Amino acid sequence: MKKLGIIGAGKVGVSLGVALFSSGPLRISGYYSRSLSSAQYGAEKTGSTCFRSLSDLADASDVILIATPDDVIEDVWRQLLQLNISGKILCHTAGSLSSSLFFHRTTKDVSAASLHPLMAIADRETGYASVGSAFFTLEGDDEAVAVFKDCLDAHHIAYKVMTSTDKATYHLATAAMSNLVVAVSAMAFDLMKDVGFNESEAKEALRPLAEKNLAKIFDVGPAAALTGPVERCDLTTVGRHLDALARKGDDDAEALYRAASLILCDIGEAKHEGRPYDAMRRLLKGEEE
After folding, report:
1. Is 32 helix (H, G, I), strand (E, B) or coil?
2. Cα(36)–Cα(234) distance, rounded to whole angstroms?
3. In Å, how far are 43, 242, 261, 271 from 267, measured between CA atoms?
4. How far, in Å, CA of 16 to CA of 20, rounded?
5. How far is CA 139 from CA 92, 124, 148, in A?
6. Which of 19, 132, 236, 272 is the most exposed place for a label (fewest CB within 10 A)?
7. pTM (2 d.p.)
8. CB atoms closer than 10 angstroms to residue 77
């Protein structure tokens, strides 16, 4: 059984500490944080130690997990490089960064990985409850990856091991599914407001459509779930949409509609062999209005 110390006692560090490292093959040694009160909270939550320095945490741990904000990780690593970390395993929790962030690690005889949960952790008080149902990704050196695979297997948590060069594209996919959906939703709410709906009414009207569509996407995949005027090459309806956006005068919303609809053309073309989408593409690109 290896001992794991966590740097950063925010919602990610505490939630993972409780859910993954309070039992199983990796056991938490304790927390270090710039905020002593945060480290104390994490230690109390997991029945572990509140470390007052990075060196104390490193001395007490076989594995070191950096669960700080992304832009702080490299600075923490530079501090760790000044310590005796030979033979230890290092890991961070950033979704868009790979284990290559741990530069010069071979000179320290360190094995490194990154571990990322595909979930939005709401808070450090209750976030641990949903960790077990999240999907994780792992990448890095074989030794480090093996340690975290054993941990996830012990907790029956699904995961995928990927290459370091794929991390940015992977994180882009998660942002598209999470953050960019918010942009499309905001556009829909704004358009409903333009025709007299208040926010409460817009939620009530759009919720069934959104929830059923999202459920269908995950049941049968994006192509099979696709319906609507772009898929059926309804130039008249799409033309009306573009006219409405032009009257609204929101260039960003119009650009979003055009760009997303061009992607739908690609999906529709693959789904319906022989259905011509050239005219629809010209319309969406502004080549034919």
Report:
1. strand
2. 61
3. 50, 20, 10, 6
4. 5
5. 10, 25, 10
6. 236
7. 0.89
8. 22
